[in-house]
């Protein structure tokens, strides 16, 4: 119904080819994954991505306060900073999604009428954050360009989010980016709030 074609061509494709097309942000691949597969890893993927993001932040926090004292390694393992970073990353992602939902509900209320519409969009957004898994190789292959890699990963995740919104609600290209922009404003507002509270984010 959405793609105006008699059959989804990806039904005959190998999962690896579908994954490559999804990484290339092809709308039809996203449509196939969201509507014609029974993937149920949204929650696990979200938790894993948040753990990756929290680890990156925690690592940067530890780099800024590095101590060569061997006894500090024991204290290092017992610190609660990692859990705090996980909580902050979770709140930021939640505020980002809330910003997107508010914008889309305000701009296109007919698209988000029922609870199932909201759930489908949430699942699409959670799946489209898979780009955060690239944080793992960015940490493993640590080099001078890590901040640039992290910026590219953020842009890739935002492009994936845009495609997920576009495919789920069958919208044009402009409205998803507007929703993402508002989500980023809300997320940055949360970051500013934490910084005013004196937390390292």
TrEMBL record:
One of its GO terms (biological process) is regulation of plasma membrane sterol distribution. The chain crosses the membrane at residues 85-106, 118-141, 148-168, 174-194. It is found in: Endoplasmic reticulum membrane. The keyword Transmembrane helix applies. It holds the Pfam family Arv1. It comes from the Eukaryota. It is a multi-pass membrane protein. Keywords: Endoplasmic reticulum, Lipid metabolism, Lipid transport, Membrane, Transmembrane, Transmembrane helix, Transport. The keyword Membrane applies. One of its GO terms (cellular component) is endoplasmic reticulum membrane. Belongs to the ARV1 family. Mediator of sterol homeostasis involved in sterol uptake, trafficking and distribution into membranes. This is Protein ARV. It comes from Scytalopus superciliaris. The gene is Arv1.
């Amino acid at each position: 119904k959405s793609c105006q074609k008699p059959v989804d061509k990806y039904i005959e494709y190998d999962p690896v080819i579908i994954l490559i097309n999804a990484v290339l942000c092809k709308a039809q691949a996203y449509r196939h994954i969201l509507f014609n597969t029974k993937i149920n890893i949204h929650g696990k993927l979200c938790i894993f991505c948040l753990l990756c993001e929290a680890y990156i932040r925690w690592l940067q926090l530890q780099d800024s306060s590095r101590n060569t004292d061997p006894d500090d390694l024991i204290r290092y393992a017992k610190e609660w900073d990692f859990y705090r970073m996980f909580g902050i990353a979770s709140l930021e992602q939640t505020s980002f999604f809330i910003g997107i939902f508010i914008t889309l509900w305000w701009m296109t209320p007919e698209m988000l009428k029922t609870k199932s519409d909201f759930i489908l969009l949430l699942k699409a957004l959670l799946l489209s954050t898979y780009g955060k898994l690239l944080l793992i190789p960015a940490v493993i292959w640590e080099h001078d360009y890590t901040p640039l890699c992290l910026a590219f990963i953020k842009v890739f995740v935002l492009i994936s989010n845009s495609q997920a919104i576009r495919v789920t609600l069958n919208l044009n290209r402009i409205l998803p980016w507007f929703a993402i922009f508002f989500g980023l404003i809300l997320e940055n507002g949360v970051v500013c709030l934490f910084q005013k509270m004196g937390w390292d984010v």
